[in-house]
Design brief:
The chain is an all-alpha fold and 111 residues long. It has one domain. The protein contains 5 helices and no strands. Helix 2 packs antiparallel against helix 3. The radius of gyration is 19 Å and the shape is elongated.
Amino acid sequence: MDYRKLNSPLNTVTWDTEKLAEPTGNVYESIMIVAKRANQISKDMKEELSKKLQEFASYTDNLEEVFENREQIEISRFYERLPKPTSIAATEFTDNKVYYRNPAKDILRED
């Protein structure tokens, strides 16, 4: 995912519960969908950051060698400045970019 192209807010935002509830008709169901998507985004971001930082890992056990790698610091700062996964997930959900389904509702419709 290209995090530079996101239009999610960087600061805390108060979301309109009616707007969140529109797609599902239930605010609690919508919040659960956003929470699950936020967990997915968080996991992806952690994996991506770990892969990038793994390139800079040194496997020497010398405690006297403490050095700062400027590129590693810049990568970490980039990820710190990104919007939080919950903001990204809520923005995706309100923009109808999240696919979701409720198996319990699907069963009820088939009967």
